[in-house]
Design goal:
The chain has one domain. The protein contains eight helices and no strands. It has helices at 2-25, 28-60, 67-97, 99-103, 109-133, 136-141, 146-172, 181-185.
Length: 186
């Protein structure tokens, strides 16, 4: 049963990668839909991985009554995944809230640049996570090693900062529909 569960969240990870690749090579509605689908399937797979990690933490600390140890284990072992979920949730909220501006292309080109950077950072994190999920060490202990966890914290922090930049672009630098001749002629 555990093998089936791990196959399911690994397939969701691969499907999110495929959606992000479709986003990069398409435009307009297809691009938007694949971006939203990629973020949603990645979110779902991260929740499934967090369920496995939380289950393992609760099993190993069942006899220990220290609340501090339980909270520190949760933050250390699941922190990179939670940070990814926060960054993905922010970007997903932004692209859904500003859907009309994105589809009508009343946003600056820097949105697409930072959106592609965000997806590239997520793809790097997905690659690291997927390689560690296939590692026999993770299959046995349900834990990432310290170097991988630290690297995911670093990349997650950069992704979160990039998500805040996307927020400021969509919030403060979006146009109301007016386009000058010079921007449409290029």
């Amino acid at each position: 049963m555990q093998n089936l569960y791990s196959s399911i969240y690994k397939s969701f990870i691969l499907s999110s990668v495929i959606c992000f690749i479709i986003y990069i090579f398409t435009t307009e509605n297809v691009s938007y839909g694949s971006m939203v689908t990629g973020y949603c399937t990645l979110t779902f797979s991260l929740f499934m991985i967090l369920f496995v990690i939380f289950n393992n933490i609760l099993e190993t600390t069942k006899n220990d009554s220290s609340t501090y140890k339980l909270i520190s284990n949760i933050l250390f072992l699941s922190g990179p995944f939670i940070l990814m979920l926060i960054a993905i949730g922010l970007v997903l909220y932004l692209i859904i809230f500003y859907k009309n501006k994105i589809l009508s292309q009343h946003i600056p080109n820097s949105f697409y640049t930072f959106s592609n950077i965000n997806i590239l950072l997520l793809l790097i994190q997905i690659y690291i996570i997927y390689n560690n999920l296939n590692n026999s060490n993770f299959e046995e202990t349900k834990k990432l090693d310290k170097i991988t966890s630290s690297l995911l914290y670093l990349l997650g922090t950069i992704t979160f900062i990039n998500s805040i930049i996307i927020f400021s672009i969509l919030r403060y630098f979006s146009a109301d529909g007016f386009q000058s001749y010079f921007t449409t002629a290029l």
